[in-house]
Specification:
The chain has 27 helices and 29 strands. By secondary structure, the chain is an alpha/beta fold. Helix 24 links the parallel strand 26 and strand 27. The two termini are 62 Å apart. It binds one RNA strand through strand 8, strand 12, strand 13, helix 10 and strand 25.
Length: 879
RNA sequence: GGGAGCAUAGCUCAGCUGGUUUAGAGCACCUGCCUUACAAGCAGGGGGUCGGCGGUUCGAAUCCGUCUGCUCCCACCA
């Protein structure tokens, strides 16, 4: 097969991905082999590929391809997440473009639009993953809101409800007035925000609702909420305010009377030491309200506007109301002063709206017991985190866990399977039919029309926590008595999970809980946390900053293999990735190197009759040993999830050892032909190297593997076995390294003395340490080997402990050489002194491990022989 | 405020239970080369008192304390 001079990734990548799909190479069915299972962290169905996905899925693919080549039955489940808030926002935005407001249409109409949107844009990201080379089992693609998985979610809700772990409660939630939904604490981002600190006078009431001339001053950032005040609170230890005990004060503008109460919560030295308590609009105030039995008055509606309860400014937006009430308070003489103030304000992660603390009826899942069990799975080591330090983070969260608010005031998602009876009773069942049956047991007269289903949907994570189970057997979640089907029994628990640390609680912890609840087993054995992809100056990649390259552009420009390698080069587990395009360039260069190496080898026409040159025999023996050693290293790295180290070991083996040394050693001179034995060995090495590289760079390795020889239809490198390490002669490798070093020294010598490359040098080596490897050395160094002593002025040097000298009549300046040798000698003596100091240290000899002491003695002996050799060289130079 | 982590070459990081390294790698940089696989390359080279200080030890990049500077998570004083 004729290879083009340049590697063309675009052509090759499309060709082989189609080939893999056609031959169903990614598909897995249970069989007698050991399974290797991973589930994709499902990306948002409306999402598009970003650099974080590239990192995550590249790592996933490397692990999957490696396992496949190790002979395991590898199965990688792809799929998408319905992402209720994000998707609903996008649908709302698109409807708005068409001039349709969500409030103007029915739930059913809205969902119709949403599904349309999903069919149109959903799954784009899965197509993009194919460009990256992801070897997912596409036949098994899942979606968290497909019917079977939705049923699993509803069954799960019923399961926990019937266990008494799900309850409905009034809670202070984080209300997003734009998305019109409650969001979890974890979805609130606190940002320091410039605002004002308003100091307001509250006059003490005379008892009949009239102001006296006495007053107190409170400080607030939210003057628009004073109409909802239920009390003024001071610290009981605060003597400045003891005169207020038992008094009532009047809310400015509306004159409503509220009590002064005392609570330790109030900081005496913050603000004025007086706190207005507004239970409906502040989480802490709500807690104080509970302690003091204060009434709750809600004056803000779902859109963040003041309602009738406010009495004034009704219908105004909360921020408008703030501006207006400032003026009103000033006019009324209640405004003492306004300070500039920076305070942390909660924003919605999704809509960036300022969060409004709001009391609302929500569904909760009790977490205490689930969390305790989930913690144990990690503490006991049944689940391993990589890197391990995330265990601390995990433990901390699991020990301080709050109940999980699982309801969302949205339409896109699984609707809560709770039905209200006319009398307010609630029945929870998986379907409307079952709910009616249950309701009729309470009141036989009821009909379907009497039941009203809860309007809310479930939190997206309430479906994704089932993912490792429901992708295989959606019937199981919620029905622990159900016998797991064949897929679930075979593939569960999954092997590894690759994900970002920011969803350790949202997703990882909850999958562990669901796995424990329904499978009584962990959902995965190892969790590999990737870092966050940042740009090269450390900023998070974001659309607004515009610092995030489009992965597809990168793939088009450099090829998927290059992008994969670029991503992996700089990624160690748990560390943030500082992405720089130069890394992708490095990946592209590596592709070119592999390509060109094969162009060289494939261009040779071997002579089957020719005898193998000694230099070739040595080279083959060397690389065979080196390959074994490197394979062992690589396996060790993979076993410890040190993917970038494994990659680097392979990269250096190919580039530095195979290309720069091995190929140069066996490369026939122009016009010459290589012997058949060496050629076969070289092709064999090349194939093993391709197999080692394949998990990281699937496309170019497939292309070359197919180009090496005629393959059977449907055959692929994907299913070739990872090369096994043979025996490794470490001593031989060490001697070859000496020869290699000698070549480097001789090359340096040529450069230094301006000796033309054509001129052969005569090299004298003492002893026979290099006897076997010398042929290789001679070829690359352009030297002829002699024994005995160099005549006349010569350059002496040491490689390891081997003394070598090259007579260089006409090139050597004796004085220069002498001073160099003297420098070397001085250095060796100093080094020897250091080693001897250590050895004469009684503590060292007594305490250090034997091997270490022996090592030092070896150093001492080596240094001595070097000194001896240098002295000899000096003597002969002087003679 | 609570918790966790990081600090090693210009950059990104290895360095695993203290000793076998006279602190390594990749990239970047500098010098010389278009040598018929590859200039997306080849051959060389420079560059670090392992953040500061103290301690433990025969021995510390490694363990302990402390300081400084960053990062993340949790909670946020109205």
């Amino acid at each position: 097969m004729e290879l083009s001079a340049k590697y063309n990734p675009a052509e090759v990548e499309d060709k082989w991905y189609s080939y893999w799909i056609e031959n169903r190479c990614f598909h897995s069915e249970p069989d007698s082999r050991e399974p290797y299972t991973v589930v994709i962290p499902p990306p948002n169905v409306t999402g598009i590929l970003h650099m974080g996905h590239v990192l995550n899925n590249t790592l996933n693919d490397v692990l999957v391809r490696k396992a496949r080549m190790d002979g395991k039955n590898a199965c990688w489940i792809p799929g998408t997440d319905h992402a209720s808030i994000a998707t609903e926002n996008k649908v709302v935005a698109r409807l708005r473009e068409r001039g349709i407001s969500k409030e103007d249409i029915s739930r059913e109409e809205f969902l119709k639009y949403a599904w349309e949107w999903k069919e149109e844009h959903g799954g784009i990201i899965l197509q993009q993953l194919r460009k990256l080379g992801a070897s997912c089992d596409w036949d098994r693609t899942r979606f968290t809101m497909e019917p079977a998985l939705s049923e699993a979610v509803l069954a799960t809700f019923c399961h926990f409800y019937k266990k008494g772990l799900i309850y409905r409660g009034v809670r202070m939630v984080n209300w997003d007035p734009v998305a019109l939904t409650a969001i979890s604490d974890d979805e609130v981002i606190h940002k320091d925000t410039k605002s004002h600190f308003y100091h307001l006078k509250y006059y003490v009431s005379d008892g009949k609702g009239n102001p006296t001339d006495k007053y107190l001053v409170i400080a607030t950032t939210r003057p628009e909420t004073i109409m909802a005040d239920a009390a003024i609170c001071v610290n009981p230890k605060d003597e400045r305010h003891h005169w207020l005990r038992g008094k009532k004060v009047l809310i400015p503008l509306i004159g409503r009377e509220i009590p002064v109460i005392e609570d330790d919560y109030v900081e005496m030295d913050f603000g004025t030491g007086c706190l207005k308590v507004t239970p409906a609009h502040d989480a802490h105030d709500y807690e104080i309200g509970l302690r003091h039995n204060l009434p709750v008055l809600d004056i803000i509606d779902d859109h963040g506007r003041l309602n009738e309860n406010a009495q004034i400014l009704v219908g105004e937006d909360r921020f408008e109301a703030r501006k207006k009430i400032e003026k009103m308070l000033e006019d009324a003489g209640n405004l003492v002063k306004v300070e500039e103030y920076v305070s942390p304000v909660g924003y919605s992660e999704r809509t960036d709206a300022v969060i409004e603390p709001k009391l609302s009826a929500q569904w909760f899942l009790k977490m205490e017991d689930l969390a305790a069990r989930a913690l144990d799975h990690v503490e006991s080591g049944r689940i391993k985190f990589i890197p391990d330090r995330y265990r601390n983070t995990y433990r901390h969260w699991m020990e301080t866990v709050h109940d999980w608010c699982i309801s969302r005031q949205l339409w896109w998602g699984q609707r809560i399977p709770a039905w209200y009876l006319p009398d307010g009773q609630v029945v929870v069942e998986e379907t409307a039919e079952k709910a009616l049956e249950a309701a009729q047991k309470i009141n036989p007269a009821l009909t379907a029309a009497d039941l009203r289903q809860d309007e809310d949907v479930l939190d997206t994570w309430f479906s994704s926590w089932l993912w490792p189970i429901s992708v295989f057997d959606p019937k199981l979640p919620g029905h622990p008595e159900h016998k797991a089907n064949r897929d679930l029994s075979y593939y569960y628990p999954t092997s590894d999970l690759v994900t970002a640390p920011d969803i350790i609680f949202f997703w990882v912890a909850r999958m562990i809980m669901a796995g424990d609840e329904f499978m009584h087993d962990v959902p995965f054995r190892n969790v590999y946390f990737t870092g966050i992809v940042r740009d090269k100056i450390g900023r998070k990649m974001s659309k607004t900053l515009g610092n995030s390259p489009d992965p597809l552009d990168l793939i088009a420009k450099y090829g998927a293999d290059a992008v994969r390698l670029g991503m992996l080069l700089c990624s160690s587990a748990g560390n943030d990735i500082l992405y720089d395009e130069s890394q992708v360039e490095q990946g592209r260069n590596f592709c070119a190197k592999i390509w060109n190496a094969w162009r060289l080898v494939s261009g040779w026409s071997p002579d089957a009759e020719a005898a193998q040159a000694e230099s070739c025999r040595v080279a083959v023996k060397w690389f065979d040993n080196l390959l074994s050693r490197t394979i062992n290293e690589v396996e060790d790295h993979y076993a410890k999830f040190r993917i970038s180290d494994a990659l680097m070991a392979i990269y250096k083996l190919f580039w530095d050892d195979f290309c720069s040394w091995y190929l140069e050693l066996v490369k026939p001179a122009p016009g010459q032909r290589l012997d058949g034995r060496t050629f076969e060995a070289t092709v064999g090495f090349f194939e093993k190297l391709l197999k080692l590289i394949h998990p990281v760079m699937p496309f170019i390795t497939e292309e070359l593997w197919q180009a090496m020889e005629e393959r059977r239809p449907g055959e692929t490198i994907m299913f070739q076995r990872t090369p096994k390490a043979g025996p490794c002669n470490a001593d031989f490798l060490a001697r070859f390294d000496l020869a290699r070093q000698a070549v480097i020294n001789i090359r340096a010598l040529r450069a230094q003395k301006n000796i033309p490359p054509k001129q052969e040098l005569e090299l004298f080596v003492e002893g026979d340490a290099l006897a076997e490897v010398a042929p290789a050395l001679c070829k690359l160094g352009g030297v002829r080997l002699s024994s005995g002593k160099a005549e006349g002025a010569a350059v002496s040097f040491l490689v390891g402990t081997v003394q070598m000298s090259v007579p260089l009549a006409g090139f050597v300046n004796v004085d220069e050489e002498r001073s160099k040798l003297e420098n070397d000698l001085a250095y060796q003596k100093k080094f020897l002194a250091g080693v001897r100091a250590k050895l004469s240290n009684e503590g060292f000899v007594a305490h250090a491990p034997e091997a270490v002491v022996a090592g030092e003695r070896k150093k001492e002996a080596d240094a001595l022989s070097r000194i001896e050799a240098l002295e000899k060289a000096l003597a002969s130079l002087n003679a």
